[in-house]
Amino acid sequence: MNNVIVEIYTNLINSLPFEPLKVILGTLIPVLGIVTLPLLTTFLLIWWERRLIAFVQARLGPNRLGPGGLFQSFADALKVLLKEDIVSKDADKILFSLAPVLVFVPGILVYSLMPVGHQMVVTNVNVAIFLFLSVASLTTIGILMAGWSSNNKYSLMGGIRAVAQAISYEIPLLLSIVGVILLTGSLSIVDIVEKQDVWNIFKQPLAFFIFFTCALSEVNRIPFDLPEAESELVSGYNTEYSGFKFALFFLAEYVNTFTLGALCSLLFFGGWRFPFDYLLGDIGMQLSNQLGIIWFFIKTMFFFSVVVWIRGTLPRVRTDQLMSFAWKYLLPLSLFNIFITAIITGFLSGAFSR
Amino acid sequence: MSEVIREISPVRQYFKNLFDGVKAIYNGMRLTLKYMFLPKVTEVYPDVKRNLPQRFRGRFAFLYNKDDGKMLCIGCYACVKVCPPQTIVMETIKGEDKKIKTTRYEINIGECISCANCVEVCPVGALEMTHEYETATFNQMDLVYGMDKLAKYVEKPNMYMPPDGKAKK
Ligand code: SF4
Ligand code: SF4
Q1: What is the tally of structural domains in chain B?
Q2: Which of A189, B20, B48, B155 is most buried, by CB atoms within 10 Å?
Q3: SS3 readout for B21-89
């Protein structure tokens, strides 16, 4: 069953008169999509986060500009872009300018691997999940770079913390996904989603919680926002940044959080698939295939909202708690999860009966 | 008395920590979820205005009689004397009928501390605190309110009611 949107798009490209035009437009449109879509969703996300966090605190949040305050983030973006771009005197100028880009680009790059609907993926790599996580973890280098080049002790502390945190949390993060990979038998995200007749959350609940915690730490969201702890480090690695460079850091954070939500929904909640679509037969399949992008977006927004909800609830952890939590709790639990999953999938596939 | 410290084995401590953590997070998240749907405390000020209490002390008003358009003030200077920041500026003349007539009555509402001393002291009830409070201006001199701006036409004098509930006449 083909996706109507994809079909229209493919026909449109194929109906172009010249071969070079097909190639150029066929490349440019997905690239533009990858670049603009995250940026546009970021505006939505910033607004939604501010509204939701306000609701948690019994406030109203931005509600003056546009319907429900929706345009507030555009106004803020405009304000940030109009600010002077300050580079401090003793900063390492090249690294200082390179760091925001290096933080931002991996965040956007992973969108090319993200299937947002049935057949709606820019590149269907067969090791997508592996590539996804390795590209996403590049962000840390940018953060350390920003911390180091700022020539500011708070920024450096933030950068170092980011690296320590990333190293600790990357391991349980990857190990928790291994359970899903074992169930699916494939590293491709498209395959993982397509095999989830029953959502993975019902088969891998522990893995989901470990994954969610570690991903939260990877994107430096609130209980784990040590690298940019406002109250201790004056917002850490981005203290010295202003104007457009700061905007890039800010965008990267939201893009990454959206990616977190997207990964949660793709790996554990059936991505673009309608809940229990296999029970609904053909209608279910149609719902999943044609309107997939809507379900995907709803699920992702739900996880983003959970992240904001957590932000409204939990205080920041201490560095030693952060480390002991990763190494003493998450790592053994994820290993345990792999062990159990491996045994069960082994039995089910008959690996032990030979 | 000897304190009995119960030793917990490290393994039990480990699982207890895990359980406690999950429980604490669950409780916190439940509370914030509840707050998400509670009514909000924010007042959407310019759109929705608060109901002011009856004795709210806003901007100041100088009363005129509605029927004959005459001012109620008898020019006794009591309000000028009693005003703590001394912001009331007043001039009187003696008219042909030997009656004192107030020709100038100005207050600077930027200086006025809205204490309502003047209202309380006025023997004829010629002053009033209104419920108007949006008095911000772009020019400092606009804060000086003369008789024209302070004017308010009323049917009967404002007999200030002190907190003990007994009117002063
Ligand atoms: S309210 Fe108080 S400060 Fe204001 S004019 Fe009257 S006496 Fe003066
Ligand atoms: S106290 Fe009343 S009557 Fe006396 S001067 Fe002031 S306003 Fe006029």
Answers
A1: 1
A2: A189
A3: HHHHHHHHHHHHHHHHHCCCCCCCCCCCCCCCCCCCCCCEEEEEECCCCCECCCCCCHHHHHCCCCCCE
